[in-house]
Amino acid sequence: MVKVRAARPTEAEDLTGLVMRSKAHWGYDAAFLAACAPELRIRAADVTARRVVVAENGRGEVLGVASLEGTPPVATLGLLFVEPSAIGRGVGRLLYRDALRRAVDLGVRRLVIDSDPHAVGFYRSMGAVATGAPGAPGAESGGPALVRFETAPVPLADWARAWTGGGRAVHLGNVGEFNAQFADTTLDPEQRPAHHYACLAAFYSPHPAVLVLPRAVPRGWTELVCRQLGWTGVEVYDGLLDADPGLADAVRARPALAALLTGAGLPLVPWGRTGPFARLAGLPWRPGELRYESKSAAHALFGRILADGGHPGIVLPRQWRAGGRWAAVRMLAARTRAGESTVLKSEHGVGGSGTTVVTPERVRAAGGARAVLRRLPRGPLLVEEYVGGPASGADEGPRDLTYDGFVDGEGHAHEVGGAVMDVADGCYRGATVGPGVVPAWAEESLGAFGAAVGRELAESGYRGWFDVDFVADGAGRLAPTETNLRLTGPSVAFMVAARLDALRGAGHLVRVADRVELGARLPEALLDEWCAALARGCAELGAVFVPAIPTAAFEPAPWLGVLVAARSREVLDAAEALVRSEALAVGAMFGPTAKASDRTGS
Length: 602
Known about the structure:
The chain is α+β, with helices and mostly antiparallel strands. About 35% of the residues lie in helices and about 25% in strands. Helix 1 runs antiparallel to helix 2, helix 9 packs parallel to helix 19 and helix 19 packs antiparallel against helix 20.
């Protein structure tokens, strides 16, 4: 176990030797090293003045050294050198992250790094941004110029501190359990997809202590996620369920595990609140708290908020409850004759399940309204106006947006932020969060209306995470479409963005891609290798790759949920393109003639 501690003045000479050995590792000649020696020397008086720390293993051996120099709000990473025998073992990463943490504590808001050319890849992978400005000159003997990087150290976001008290938490992946309580016909009764999405439990807060999962997950996955997000000491309890969706009850059936999870003094964070979770956590359970998970109830809530005025940027589409299938057929047929597109919704559903956009052309192509409805799941239907977007050829911009927030245990609503979702035909496919993602014209309306919903939810007794989904119309207004009283795909992106900002510096954009199709089903060891290679490839671009849903990679039609992060839209798009192209190319490992169904990789 390597840890960081303050250096001692008596170590100055030995630390200078480590620095010179590390510099020599890159093949510089003796003349150049001699020219560098005065600048790289550490004197006893420097240890405190330059805030020098060392990385030390369990045997007391010093493996690396770093210094944090200057006066806030600007500081310099003066030294970061690793013993040659320890290079590539995470020592530099540990020292760099410690420097950012100390910089935050000191009030530093701009950290400058003059990098040796051989370390450029390292600093880029750690999230520092090359400025284009010249770094410090090389040694007098004509050595290479240094490359200047900068980063902006920031503390964990205020909302993230309020979410779990700023500390670690126990994450319970009860997605199937949450869905099952609504008994909606659009949801898989076995909750197989939900058990895959339970892997998102890794990201229910910025830093988990324990993950509790229904299905077994690859060990290599947890190791890679922990490495990418700087987590340590994360315990995993997986494989607790075979088919039944009740994860909280599965935990309660194991008294030792239940006592461990509830007795640690850490917050228990579920995907969503359920009766079994409330019993596990020792919390009151009021099913009525979740009434606005219903799409018709949420629509009524939106109407009440808008009736008070004060939200000119919000428009509410009309919605009707169909009394039965024949009533829905008549309503859809009438709207089709009028040339109107329609959204058909079930009362509940996740990821767009139970939501279908029906155009007049689609109705005619299907052979009429009755034929369209015959193909939809049975159960109550809501008929809603379709919110049209900009005219064809216009600059559409983002069409689907969402507001995320939560109500804490004291009933206070907190804003997390807005996101842009990737939605096709009513089905959610992913989301992007970060600075500048929500267009300026939508920010005020989105935030004000989302906050109003949060206050109403708090008043209704709801406690936990929520989001409000919107569709943008052609006039620059937002139409709220539903609330989700649980964690969501965008919430996962917000958690990761908060963690990366605190770990690597401010300004991360994070994109969650819900479903990336794989060209073949890989054995677990090969999947681990492939994900590690993607992590390296994205790091070379200056991005972060995190596999989010690994268990679906072993399905007959394999797919993977992923997160990518970067500080610019261009790098973010490039990282996603790399992941998708490499995913499709996975089948090439098995030869050009292999069929996808044959690539079982057992």
